[in-house]
Fold this protein.
Amino acid sequence: VSLQELMQPESGANGTVIAEFILLGLLEAPGLQPVVFVLFLFAYLVTVGGNLSILAAVLVEPKLHSPMYFFLGNLSVLDVGCISVTVPSMLSRLLSRKRAVPCGACLTQLFFFHLFVGVDCFLLTAMAYDRFLAICRPLTYSTRMSQTVQRMLVAASWACAFTNALTHTVAMSTLNFCGPNEVNHFYCDLPQLFQLSCSSTQLNELLLFAVGFIMAGTPMALIVISYIHVAAAVLRIRSVEGRKKAFSTCGSHLTVVAIFYGSGIFNYMRLGSTKLSDKDKAVGIFNTVINPMLNPIIYSFRNPEVQSAIWRMLTGRRSLA
């Protein structure tokens, strides 16, 4: 039975039709479920609160009306979207104790998760390009990184990510699922669903590697090239203070890039393994919860301008700029 047919529960040649998947969640021990609920609810509130604080500071504070913070504001929106696709539904299942998820809802979650992660991927590249222009091409920075260019980069990121997410979702809908239907995870994702398919997933896995190479490999290469030029330019700065200031604006971004790509590569580049273990759940937590929660912490802790803007916003003071 294909996922398209699963929307219409009727009996087929292979017996009972699978109309839903059972998400096993993080832990099977019932006694630990309240602890998991409290921890994930706390992480969700911290992530949403932190990212929305950064977004509000970027919108309100005149000092933060620059390309770097425009991209940071967009990144905050994506982080809220990314965690909202997975965590609230998991929390509702913990409360209701119902682990069944309709196939249509599973596909929808898959689509939006890959949409937000895809935009994140391209946006991090746009931020690296912004740092490259600011440090290596300061004289032409304002014209090369105009508001029109910023909007075009964000729009292109959404368009590419939408195409990627739709491609994987449509490809997944063509697979046959004739049982079992237990997903050993807390959200629907490609590797876990590939394991349950009773038809060949070779083409789907090939598609994931090919598109993944374009979606992750190309941005990663562009980020590395940008920072090689940035490092070379910074090392030419004679004053120690000047070097420190230039590197500080790049440090936060490089930290986020390392965490994002590290967890992503581990999750999707090991599809050949016959059994997906609890390590995949840990990586899933990293992708969907830890990354979005760390981003506002990394950017605010390492950036005095963001810190002071959030503080002024919270205390009701206006910037003198």
Observations:
- Residues 30-315 form a domain with the Rhopdopsin 7-helix transmembrane proteins fold (CATH 1.20.1070.10).
